[in-house]
Write a structure and sequence with these properties.
The protein is about 50% helix and about 10% strand. The chain is mostly helical. The chain has two domains: about 1-45; about 50-80. The chain has a two-stranded antiparallel sheet. The mean pLDDT is about 85.
Length: about 100
């Protein structure tokens, strides 16, 4: 089993271009660049495009960007849920003003 290599985003994008623009097969990429078939498939899938409509305009984002947005949404929702929880009564203190008159 080969140790998992770290590939740069530029390298991954180049591999995706070879598949999409030049029609190279995953097997050709594996042989030419010593990259796993599943990695190539994942990179191509993550580079897929999604149309997003926002305020009457259409933007195109990659599947990877969409997954990041969803992960961020989940994290933010967890924070909101935590902030909505009431504080324990032991954390609430009542301050009294000493020596101040209401005049």
């Amino acid at each position: 089993m080969r140790k998992q290599d770290k590939y740069t985003d530029d390298f991954k994008a180049g591999i995706v271009r070879l598949v999409k623009e030049q029609g190279k097969t995953y097997k050709q990429i594996q042989q030419d660049y010593d990259v796993g078939l599943s990695a190539v498939g994942r990179w191509v899938r993550d580079a897929g495009e999604i149309k997003v409509e926002e305020n009457g305009t259409t933007k195109i984002i990659t599947t990877a960007q969409y997954k990041k947005v969803l992960a961020d949404k989940v994290a933010l929702q967890e924070e909101v849920d935590i902030l909505k929880k009431p504080l324990p009564s032991s954390c609430l203190t009542q301050t009294k003003s000493k020596g101040h008159s209401g005049t």
